[in-house]
Amino acid sequence: MKSKQRLGQRRTLFIFLMLLPSMLLPLIFTYYPLIKGGVMAFQNYTLMNIKNVSWVGFQNFKDILFNTAGVDFGQIAWNTVKWVLISLTLQFTLGFALSLMLKKKFAGAGVYQGLVFFPYAVSGFLIGIMWRWMFNGSNGVINDLLMNLGLIDVNVGWLAQKETALVSCVIANVWYGIPFFTIMITAALRGVAPELYEAADMDGANKIQQFFNVTVPSIKSVLLMTVLMRVIWIFNFPDLIYSMTSGGPANSSQIITSYMMTLVYSMDYGKASAVGLLVIAFLAIFCLIYMAVTNYTSED
Amino acid sequence: MKKFLAILLAIAMLATLFAGCGAKEEEKVTVTMVESLTSPERTATIQSIIDKYEAANPNVHIELISPPLENADAKISQMLMNGEADIVEVRDQTVSQYVNNEWLEDLDPYIADWEDLDTLSGDSWTCMHQLNGKCWLIPSGFYQRCLYYREDVLAEAGVAVPTTWQELLEASQALTDAGSNFYGYSFRGGTSGYQYADTVIWSYIGVDILADPNAGYYLKDGNGATIFTLPETKEALEYHKELFKASPTDSVAWAFSEMVEGFIGGTTAFLIQDAEVIANCQVDMEEGTWNTAPFPIGPAGEAVFPNGFGGWGMAAACENKEAAADFLMFLSNPENNTLYAANHAMVPIHTNASEYSDAFAKGYFACYSEMAAEPEVYRHATQPQMYVAFATYKTEVDAMYQKYLLDEITVDELLKWLDDFWVQAYADEGQLW
Q1: What pLDDT is attached to residue B23?
Q2: Is B249 within 8 Å of A157 when comparing Cβ atoms?
Q3: Domain check: are B295 and B332 in the same one?
Q4: Res. B413 pLDDT band, cuts 50 70 90
Q5: Which residues of A, range 236-265, sit inside 8 Å of B by Cβ?
Q6: For residue A5, what pLDDT is reported?
Q7: End-to-end CA distance of chain A
Q8: Would you say residue A197 lies in a domain?
Q9: Could you give the ipTM of this predicted complex?
Q10: Judgement on whether residues B163 and B259 belong to the same structural domain of the protein
Q11: Which among A49, B20, B217, B422 is least buried, having the fewest CB atoms inside 10 angstroms?
């Protein structure tokens, strides 16, 4: 009896030891930084003087939300909404269109697919630098192209004007994000049974009717999931903005996460952590609303 | 037999133990050195000096760590925090942080008997003791600015090389032809653009009015009053905006690479930059199409700019302080420092550098000799970087200047913002110079 008990204990210990790495890694690399960030959000934690860290209550949040940090948070939040909504809409539409084209088999489909997916394999910062030079107001290829097409007479400072800085970043982001939707939707489309289209055809449904009544309902769960994931990723994607405009000019292309990066580079970890907590709160609220509106459940 | 084997084994183990002790006695001292402004060429120069030192001091090994430029300072902070570095590269932008956090060792006791102490320049001495009167680093050289100009364009237009800010503006306006995509000046309005506005302001008000050249926003005996209340500062900022108008419109977002590219690529006629750009111009521009001139002089009769520097400090947690200090003095002796400065377009730290190289008195570097000959005109000041508030200031000030340049706010609103910020910093942190 005793030896059976000991065996059971040993087995439990063995299972625990085997599971330990998978429990420790998230604890160390996910939850510890999260908790540490949560703590720093309520401290005047700056690398300029870590010998003098103290609790400041909600001061960091107050400074950020009520513009006492010298930055108009309302403008940054509105920029973030524009950045997410426009990028998402264009990425989704163009990505969907591309995946419909890729659904059909044609000569060179593999090469074409590789070319479409290529941008997604490149780092965000690298893409930002590439587009920054393409949009350069003096020597950029985009001005040159538009000039040769006769669409502009003088060079446009795309990244230097308040009206065009964010739009330029969105264009780069759309280019970067299309492959994600294409990959996900193409995979989903290939799973739709051809019999459904045959049946719809027999019922006299045209291509548009088939699209809305067969294609979309069949891949609805994938669409809902990819849109949700993409919103979170675009929201958390300051790399492009930081490398293209650093949020300028005059914060006209600053979004919440690029502002957080600016604070990190200024060594103000306290305020940066406060912005981080705000981001988590915004995204959590968005996810709840999104799932309620779309009736998204785990069964989807 | 077993007993015999056990004794034999014990003897063998003891012998190994003693052998280990012997090896430890002769073990090399390792000094870990981390650079910040990493580039392959620069690393090679430093390594060549290390090789010379190691050949003369076989019991010391200098381990050079060269993190990528982009995150080198963050890496150094991390290593200093964990006590993993012995010698670190300290820059004008990082020295306050390292000193505030007590990560650096005061070098004064170690260099008191340094044979090359007498030949250190006044600028070197000031930079070494700029915080709390203690020696936190030995500089490796200075990044001083000069005026780059298109010799061919000026000759063709019959425009003289500007010597003052006013002449620079007039020449820039005369040469600007937006229709041909050619502009007078390579303006910097993007990251760190405020530093350029500061040089104009200081050249308008002069250095003597400042509380301290290292706290260049505060007035002498002003009890925390700032330079942003002076009428000359307002004039300087109005001038700054005029200069922007004689530059490409997108220069409101230009940082280092764009402004240099604007000059080298043939979009602008003038550029103000450090000497490191000379190497870029030599590679990409034809001889005779460009040249360098001294920094422009302002209405105060002075040309004032920060004496940017890099240097080497010893970590407070360093375990081999004597060895580290000895290497630092070797690295910074006139011969090695001149080699380093000449290879990387910096102003050397010793007054007798010309004995080791003539690179600083001729060609494109001649303007630096001209400026050095008139220290009462070409002077240095810098932002009050010793304030913790400076870190916040850096993240906000460029956007404020951009708002001013783009007519979102007036010059008075900008001045009020600047004044309020630094009055508050003084109220919070007190007098730190």
Answers
A1: 44
A2: yes
A3: no
A4: very high
A5: 245-251, 254, 262-263, 265
A6: 80
A7: 48
A8: yes
A9: 0.78
A10: yes
A11: B20
CATH classification at residue A76 = 1.10.3720.10
Nearest CA in chain B to A270: B392
How far off is chain A from B288, nearest CA to CA, in Å? 23
Residue A180, number of CB atoms within 10 A of its CB: 20
* Residue in this structure with the two tokens 């006791």, named with its chain if needed: B109
Spell out the residues 6+ positions from residue B84 whose beta carbon is closer than 8 angstroms to its own. Answer: B32
- Taking residues B46-65, what's their average pLDDT? 96
- Domain range for A256 is 68-104+115-293
Q: Give the domain extent around B90.
A: 28-143+308-355
Chain segment B283-317, per-residue pLDDT in tens? 899 999 999 999 999 999 999 999 889 999 999 99
Residue B280 pLDDT class (50, 70, 90 cuts): confident
CB of A48 less than 8 A from some CB of B: yes
Q: Which residues in chain B have their CB less than 8 angstroms from residue A262's CB?
A: 395
| Contact A139/B at CB under 8 A | yes
B38 and B136 inside one domain: yes
**CA–CA distance from A185 to each of A107, A122, A177, B229, B260 (Å)?**
21, 20, 13, 61, 45
Q: Which H helix or E strand runs over B65?
A: strand B60-65
CB burial readout B319-355, b (16+ within 10 A) else e: ebbebbbbbbbbbbbbbbbbbbbbbbbbbbbbbebee
pLDDT of residue B392: 86
Look at residue B326 and tell me if it is in a domain: yes
Q: In this complex, do A70 and B390 lie within 8 Å of one another by their Cβ atoms?
A: no
What is the Cα–Cα distance from A250 to A163, expressed in whole angstroms?
A: 11
Among partner residues B254, B265, B408, which is closest to A250 by beta-carbon distance? B408
User: Which chain A residues are within 8 Å of B399, Cβ to Cβ?
Assistant: 70-71, 247-251, 254
Residue B72, Cα to own-chain centre: how many angstroms? 15
Number of domains in chain B: 2
What's the total number of domains in chain A?
Answer: 1
CATH of the domain at B107: 3.40.190.10
A231 lies in a domain?
yes
* pLDDT in the model for residue A70: 65
For residue B232, give both structure tokens. 């000359």
Question: Within this chain, do residues B70 and B158 fall inside the same structural domain, yes or no?
Answer: no
